[in-house]
Structures are given as C-alpha cells and as structure tokens.
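User: I've been trying to design a sequence by hand for this structure and keep getting stuck. Would you show me what you'd pick, starting by listing the structure so we're on the same page?

Assistant: Good idea, let's start from the same input. This is the structure you sent:
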C-alpha cells in the first residue's frame, strides 16, 4: 500500500551477540538460529494519513476496526484507510484532543476520553457528547468499567459516570480528589489507580482505601497478568504487588528503564512499553524491539493484540507501529552482510557463500564472516571447487580464492575482452565455461589459457546472462538480446521459433524430476520441446509474468522468483499441468512484501538457493529473504466485511432501508471493505446483485462494485471477503434495492389501451349502423311521397332491407371472429408484457418470447388482412383489377412473410414455378390466395416437413398447386372447407389457431377471375390445393 513504510526488523543481532531467546520447534525444518528472525513491522505516521504522530491509546472494536486516540483527532482504521473524526467534520466533537479509549462488549459501543470535552460515546455510527460541569475534569486520561458505572481518571481526580442517567459525580475519597490519574485497572473487588505524582492507590469496589504505595515515583500504567500478579510501570521500572507490598519485578534480561505500558498476549508473553521501545518477555528471557533493530518508536503509549495476532504499538511521536510474525527470515547488513545487493547464494560442503556487490560473505550455522580480500569487489557468481578453493565471476575479472587469499586474477589484460564476468560453470574436467558481457569463453585450469568459445557464432560478442548444464550434459546459454543457445558435444545451436525472438530475455533454467527443462523469461515460463521453446500458459496468468529463476526446494516445492514476489508451486502438480493431466495449479501461491519479504523486488539476475532444511533463499533489493514451507503462517481469522458507501448517480444514499430507484438510466456504485489487518492488500472480494447476477463475481482486491442501468425489479446486493489464505468472512454484508418501472409498462395501462381500442371499434360500428338507420327513414318517407310508383318503392325498400340484413350478418360474424380470434393473441401480448415488466427473464427466455411475439404479430396481420378482404367482398362485392404479375416472384414474396414460422418449425419450402410465367390477375387477390394457401400448409405441416409450390399447364389452363406432407384431411373435413353457413377451422400441428375465412376468401377470389379451386388430401400423408388461372403467358 502506498501509505505504509515497510521495514524489516529482527529481534536480535544474532551474528554479533548470543541470542537471549531461542526456542527450537521440534519436527520443524526451521534451523534454531533462525527462530527469532521472522518478525516484521509496518509504521504509519502523519505522512501516511495520521492526523498526529502521537498515538495515546488503541482499541479494536467488535467489527474489527482499530481506533486510535491522538491529539488531533479520533481515527478509525480498516487496514487500508484512516478515517479521522474531529471538530471540523463532526458536530458532536468540540475538541480534537483524545486521550483514552474503552470498548464496551456489553452493548458494542465505544467510550472515548477527550482532552477537555469529557466523555464521547460512539454507537451505531453516531457520537454523543457528555460534558462534565467542571470542565477542568473534562480531561479523561483513563477509563475503566465498573458495571453500571465507568471510573474515569482525570487530571484533577477520579470521576464516576453513571451509564443509565448519563451523569457525573466525583469519586468519594479525599486521597484521589485532586490527583493526576494515569491509569485505572479493575479486577474482581479490587481497583488499582496509578497517578503522576501521588503514588499507587488500591481500593475495593466501595472505594475503601486498602493501600497506598510509593508516592515519590511517577507511575504510568497498571496491568494484571494471567497468573494473578498486578504489575505497575513507572519511572523507576517494573513493580509487582505481592502480599500488600510493592516490590521490584525483575524479568530475566529486562533492563531497568521507565515502563510506560504493560500488555500480555494470548500466548502469555509480556510486552513492556518503555521510553525507547518495547521489551518482550516470554517467561524465560527478554529481548528489545527498538532502534538497535532498525525501529525507532520513542516512548510507547499503548500496546494491543488484534484478533489476528498482530501487535500494535502507539508511540508518543513516531506514529503507529504494527508488529507481526511473517513468513520470511531476512538477513541484511544489520546481521553482517557486506552489502544488501546480493548476486548469488551458493551452498558448499559446510558453508553458504553469498556473493554481493561488495565482496563475499560466508554463512555458517547462524554466523556471518567475510572473505576479507574480496571486500570492494562486485561478485556476480561463484564456482566452488571445495570450501577452500573458490572461483569468482566478478566485474573485476575471473578471480581465484584459495584459503581466503586471492591467487589469480584473469581479466582484459590477460585473455578476456571485458573485465565484467557474469556467470561461470565447469565445462569439462579441465576447464571453466565463463560468460562475460562481451562473449563466452573457456578457461583452462592447467595452462591458464583463456579462449573464445566460438569466434564465428553469434555468441562471440554477446552479453551472456546465464549458463546452465542439464542432466544430459547439455549447456544452455541465455543472452541479453541475442536469444537462447545450447551447446551439445561442443556444438553451438540457437533455439528459436516463430513465437520466440531475441527480444524475449531468457533468465535461468531448471530441470524437473521428469526431465522437462523449463526456463524463466521476461514473457513468462516456457519449456523446451523437440528443441523448440513452448510457453506454458495458465488461465490465472501466474506463469505469464516475468520469471527470473526457478529454485527446486528439497521438500517437493518449486520457488519462482518474479517481478511481483516469490511464487510457490508444487513440482508434481506443475509436471501434471504441463502434461495436461490437470487444468489448474491449486498449490500456486505468491508471497510478497506483506508476507514478510524485505521487498517485492527480487534481483533479476541473482542466483537463489534451496538449503537442506527445505528453505528457499532469494535475493531482494534490500537483502536476503528466506522462507521455510513448514513455517508458513496461515491466518484462520475470517475477515469482517462492511459496506462503506452506496453511491447512486454520484450521490451518497442511505442503505439502511430498501433503496428505491426511479425508472430510467442510473449508475450504482457500492464501496466495501474487508478487515484483515495482517495483509489487507491481499483481501479478495466476491459480490453479486441477487436477481441480476447469476453467480458471485470475483472482484479480486477491488473494493468497489459498479452497476449501470439495471432493469426494473427487486434486488439484493451481497458482498463477502476472503483473507490472504482464502478464509471467507463469516457473514455477508447486504442491502436491498427496488427499481420502479415506467407507467406504460404497468398492467393497468395495458388494460386501458385495450379498452380504448374496443370502444373505438364499437363507436365506428355504431356510427355506421346509425347512418343506415337514417337512410332507411329517408326511404320510408319516399314511399309515402311516391304513392304513384308503389311497386318500385317496395323493391327499393326490400333491397335496402336486404342490404341491412347482410350488413348485420357481416357485423355479427365480424364480432364473433374478433371476440374469438383476436382475444387470444391480445391476452398472449398481455402475459408477455407482464413477464417483461417483472424483469425476471433470462436472455434466452427474452429471445424465445421475442420470437413468439414476432410470430403472433405475423398471424394477427394475416388475420386482419383476411378479415378486411372478406368484409370488403361481403359488402361491396368482388371486382378484380387484373395486371401483369410474375408468378414465381409473387410466391417468393408471400413465402417470405412466413419465413419465421418456416424456421420455427424447420419446414423446407421449395418454389418450383418457372420464373418466366406471367399471369394477368388482380395482384392483391393473388397475394391473398397464395398467402392463405401457404399459411395453411405451414400450419398443418409437422416440424421438419416440406412444402412445394408448382405451376403446370393442363388443357390450356395454368394450375398453381401448393403441396405439403403434413397431417392431411379426411373427406368429411374436405367437404366442410368451403361452407358458407358455418366457418370451419382446426388447430395446427403447434396448436396454431385459424379464422375459417381464408379458404372461403380464396374460393371467392379464384372464382371471381373465372378460375376453379380443387383440394386433394389424405390423412397423415399431406394435402395439395390447386387453383386455375386462365390468363397466363410463358
């Protein structure tokens, strides 16, 4: 995180003094001389968001948040951000000075002692101020819970605060009336009060004085430890109350310094805050955490342990310190290294040799010594003939060390083109293979000759990065910008393919137990297969990052040094993944600075080490970090999850109740935090909007979720957190959302629209009837007036009466058809609209409904067209208007209208009409006949069937036929098809409805143009309907 300054600390300078605390873990792979080195600290100051570097008190509340009392504000901390409350942003706070904190488990609230404002109470995210009458007593230096009352230490005595009445009173005892209280501790029936200049007071619960001790000492703190001992800290050191006597309490190895704070952790270790650091006592020995190990704390004001086992120190002027056990042991210049810039770590028979930019260090059983004659030499690699004979690849040439003394220096003056030697390995029994920044050389042990390996190859003047010999004796050479080479039987060849060029810088290689050779590179991990490089891809991308070196651990683990930290993968698992036996790498875990490494930056060209105890040694930019798999800490504490803000269209909104969103386009943002104070940067989040998201969304470590334009409906947002070890939060944080729909999508609006349409139809029909009635009245008047021509008038009246009867018949039939056949599709429309309005449809369901609606629209259009044509023919008669029409194009046009139904039922449509055929026919009538015949064929043809249209000339007449292989008809059904008295219809193969008008209309139109219509059908075999066209040309 950018607000932290991480520094690695070590309990002891174990290489210059004997450790005063050592506890070997039996069965553990961790060597005993490392047992105290895997602790780290992080420090926050005003540069990282604190309002003040003086932390007077620290408390952790029931939700996992840390609270800090400072002189410039009260701070709330979730591991990421520091939120400060003071008089400038909180109206209930009148003073920004805070001195003491107390968390009440009983009601999950926080009591805050201020510097002049008395008590503040924080509950349910609200502050309440309780100011005492005597403002001088408003400086609350200590808070202790006495049940229904709080005992408050002030600078002018002790106050008693009643929780129920919210009132103050002075403690009823003269001894403590005007003292400056520094701490109060209550246990059982005993109350202990320390003061600045009046000693220690021991009372019972009724404030009867039981004892007073050492008034000449300034006392800072009091604390009861697990064995029942009451400890007191002051300017004269640490004391304990025994047998009503105060005695000096000496811990083994504890210096006699001022004690400012006392704390005991869950394991029983005692932490003593002093005026210059922290002393930790484990029951046997003491050790100091202070400047001697790189941590500047100054005076310690407060110490606590959080739910995850991290320790937090509040200091007087150095800010906040987190002190925790990490997964790494770290070695730096503090322990005796000549430099923190490490190039190679090589294991010998007895020692571990460390090549640095300032010489070579030798590590043996926890002690570091230097090879004096190498100081000042930038050493890049080592080759050990034995522990007494060492060859150094350095930027001063090739150097031989024997018995600690330099015996040979071979450089540009006697063989090499450049003094800068990068790497070296044995070439054969008599020589070394030496990589330089200007070529690859051999050095002969016997003759001392230096020879360029190949003057005519690309390696002649290449910058050699690394050399590696596999189990077959093949040497692999990686260069800086000139590719990868192999040397087999002293023959040099280049490794390349289309996806692998010289720009991909290759680092170090490792051979797996199955013989697979893998390399780290700037583009990720690759293997050699058939002499070609093949990248090993992984969905999570962990193998696509820059990989420098692969260290084979002695416990079956592979350690990959990367540009993001140290990656651990089980070797057998990786082999199975490479060979396709598994599809993921569940053992993969990336360790970084927050796990205890000195830095995420691992030296790219450095050489790490796997020691015999299972540890992996790597070189970081700040020294050596070592990890042992059996010592890796697992954080089993589930992170607490909290929703911090809900932002709708840029404005914060209250999410305590259901959030109501108006119709329209909106942007919703939810901010949340998961509290895991050990490694907050590795907390992962999963969230979902129930009712919108189908499953949990992995947001990684992003603490925000965004939603744009969610549909109308009811939703529930949920979020949960996982800590660095995958432990999930025990609960989910959630809130509800309700988004309203537009008024025109509501059911009542649809009902109104349908009602208006029906009323409009009735109004039009009523108007038509009224017109006819008025005409009838006029005729009746004409009869009375024209008595001279009564017979003619009777005929006129009879004629108009017949027209009226026919019109009424048309009306009755029209309303019968409308009520029967239009109601179903309209009801279907209503149901679909209500489903759409509910917002509970998936994408597939929406697609299906869209298809259904489209087919319904086509059917209603066809129905209305037939209805219009039939009504028109009934009222006005049929008057054809022939014109020239291409029969094939007309057929295709009509079939196109049914394309969706054809696809829906998977019906094959074949148009066999000769494209040269032209007919003289009423175009609209022809379209109506063809559309109805094709529609019937589709309706009564099974899924996967076939429809054929053909035109043939018989006896000088053109016959157009529509043939299907559908369900067919019996003779009884055929006889009913053209009934004038009663319309006849059947449901289709997919329950398609009909009106019974189509074929009657077709017959009328065909006969009106001197044609004839014939039907041929057989049940379960299909139907063929043909009609004749007299006027045609080919």
């Amino acid at each position: 995180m950018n607000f932290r300054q991480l520094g690695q600390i070590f309990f002891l300078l174990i290489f210059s003094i004997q450790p005063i605390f050592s506890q070997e873990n039996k069965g553990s792979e961790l060597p005993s001389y490392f047992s105290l080195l895997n602790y780290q600290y992080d420090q926050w100051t005003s540069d990282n968001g604190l309002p003040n570097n003086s932390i007077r008190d620290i408390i952790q509340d029931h939700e996992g948040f840390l609270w800090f009392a400072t002189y410039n504000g009260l701070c709330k901390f979730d591991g990421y951000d520091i939120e400060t409350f003071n008089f400038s942003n909180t109206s209930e706070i009148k003073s920004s000075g805070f001195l003491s904190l107390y968390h009440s488990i009983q009601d999950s609230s926080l009591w805050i002692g201020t510097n002049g404002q008395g008590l503040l109470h924080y509950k349910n995210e609200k502050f309440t101020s309780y100011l005492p009458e005597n403002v001088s007593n408003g400086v609350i230096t200590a808070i202790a819970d006495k049940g229904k009352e709080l005992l408050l230490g002030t600078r002018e005595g002790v106050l008693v605060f009643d929780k129920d009445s919210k009132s103050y009173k002075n403690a009823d005892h003269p001894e403590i009336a005007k003292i400056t209280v520094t701490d109060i501790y209550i246990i059982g029936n005993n109350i202990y009060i320390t003061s600045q200049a009046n000693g220690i007071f021991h009372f019972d619960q009724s404030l009867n004085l039981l004892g007073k001790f050492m008034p000449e000492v300034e006392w800072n703190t009091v604390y009861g430890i697990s064995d029942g001992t009451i400890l007191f800290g002051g300017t004269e050191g640490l004391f304990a109350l025994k047998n009503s006597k105060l005695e000096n309490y000496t811990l083994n190895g504890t210096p006699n310094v001022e004690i400012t704070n006392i704390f005991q952790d869950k394991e029983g270790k005692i932490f003593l805050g002093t005026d210059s650091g922290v002393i930790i006592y484990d029951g046997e020995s003491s050790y100091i955490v202070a400047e001697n190990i790189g941590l500047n704390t100054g005076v310690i004001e407060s110490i606590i342990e959080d739910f995850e086992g991290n320790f937090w120190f509040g200091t007087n002027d150095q800010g906040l310190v987190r002190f925790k056990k990490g997964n790494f042991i770290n070695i730096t210049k503090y322990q005796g290294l000549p430099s923190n810039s490490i190039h190679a770590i090589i294991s010998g028979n007895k020692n571990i040799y460390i090549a640095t930019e300032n010489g070579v260090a030798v590590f043996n059983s926890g002690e570091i010594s230097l090879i004096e004659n190498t100081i000042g030499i930038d050493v890049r690699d080592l080759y050990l003939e034995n522990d007494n004979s060492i060859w150094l690849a350095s930027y001063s040439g090739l150097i031989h060390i024997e018995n600690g003394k330099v015996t040979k220096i071979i450089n540009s003056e006697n063989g090499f083109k450049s003094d800068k030697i990068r790497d070296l390995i044995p070439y054969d029994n008599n020589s070394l293979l030496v990589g330089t920044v200007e070529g690859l050389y051999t050095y002969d042990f016997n003759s001392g000759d230096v020879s360029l390996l190949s003057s005519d190859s690309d390696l002649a003047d290449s910058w050699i990065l690394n050399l590696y010999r596999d189990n077959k004796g093949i040497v692999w050479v990686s260069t800086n910008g000139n590719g990868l080479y192999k040397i087999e039987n002293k023959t040099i060849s280049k490794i390349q393919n289309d996806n692998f060029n010289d720009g991909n810088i290759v680092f170090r290689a490792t051979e797996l137990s199955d013989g697979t050779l893998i390399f780290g590179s700037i583009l990720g991990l690759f293997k050699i297969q058939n002499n070609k490089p093949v990248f090993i891809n992984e969905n999570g991308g962990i193998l696509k990052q820059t990989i420098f070196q692969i260290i084979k651990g002695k416990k079956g683990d592979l350690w990959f040094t990367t540009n993001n930290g140290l990656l651990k993968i089980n070797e057998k698992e990786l082999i199975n993944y490479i060979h396709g036996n598994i599809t993921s790498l569940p053992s993969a875990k990336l360790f970084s600075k927050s796990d205890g490494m000195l830095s995420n930056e691992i030296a790219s060209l450095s050489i790490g080490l796997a020691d015999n105890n299972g540890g992996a040694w790597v070189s970081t930019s700040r020294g050596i970090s070592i990890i042992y798999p059996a010592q890796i800490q697992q954080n089993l504490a589930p992170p607490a999850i909290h929703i911090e803000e809900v932002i709708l269209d840029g404005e914060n909104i209250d999410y305590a109740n259901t959030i109501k969103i108006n119709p329209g386009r909106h942007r919703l943002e939810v901010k949340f935090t998961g509290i895991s104070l050990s490694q907050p940067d590795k907390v992962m989040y999963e969230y979902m909007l129930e009712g919108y998201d189908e499953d949990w969304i992995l947001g990684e470590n992003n603490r925000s979720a965004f939603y744009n334009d969610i549909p109308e409906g009811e939703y529930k947002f949920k979020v949960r957190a996982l800590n660095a070890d995958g432990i999930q939060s025990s609960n989910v944080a959630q809130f509800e959302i309700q988004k309203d729909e537009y008024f025109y999508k509501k059911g009542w609006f649809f009902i109104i629209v349908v009602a208006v349409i029906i009323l409009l139809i009735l109004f039009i029909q009523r108007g038509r009837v009224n017109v006819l009635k008025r005409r009838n009245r006029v005729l009746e008047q004409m009869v009375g007036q024209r008595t001279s021509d009564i017979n003619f008038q009777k005929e006129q009246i009879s004629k108009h009466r017949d027209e009226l009867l026919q019109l009424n018949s048309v009306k009755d039939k029209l309303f019968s058809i409308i009520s029967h056949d239009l109601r179903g599709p309209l009801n279907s429309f209503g149901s679909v609209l209500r489903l759409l309005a509910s917002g509970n449809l998936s994408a597939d369901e929406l697609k299906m409904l869209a298809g259904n609606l489209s087919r319904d629209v086509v059917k209603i259009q066809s129905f209305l067209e037939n209805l219009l044509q039939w009504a028109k023919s009934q009222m006005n008669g049929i008057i054809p208007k022939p014109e020239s029409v291409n029969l094939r194009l007309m057929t295709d046009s009509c079939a196109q209208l049914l394309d969706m139904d054809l696809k829906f039922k998977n019906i094959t449509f074949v148009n066999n009409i000769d494209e040269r055929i032209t007919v003289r026919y009423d175009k609209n009538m022809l379209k109506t006949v063809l559309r109805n015949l094709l529609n019937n064929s589709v309706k009564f043809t099974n899924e996967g069937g076939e429809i054929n249209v053909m035109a043939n000339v018989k006896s000088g007449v053109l016959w157009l036929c529509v043939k299907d292989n559908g369900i067919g008809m019996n003779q009884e059904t055929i006889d009913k098809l053209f009934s004038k008295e009663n319309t006849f219809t059947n449901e289709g193969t997919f329950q398609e409805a009909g009106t019974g008008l189509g074929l009657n209309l077709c017959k009328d139109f065909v006969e009106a143009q001197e044609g004839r219509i014939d039907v041929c059908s057989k049940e379960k075999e299909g139907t063929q309907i043909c009609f004749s066209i007299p006027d045609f040309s080919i």
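That's my pick for every position. To get oriented when you compare it with your attempt: Residues 790-838 form the longest helix (49 residues). Confidence is low (pLDDT under 50) at residues 1-28.
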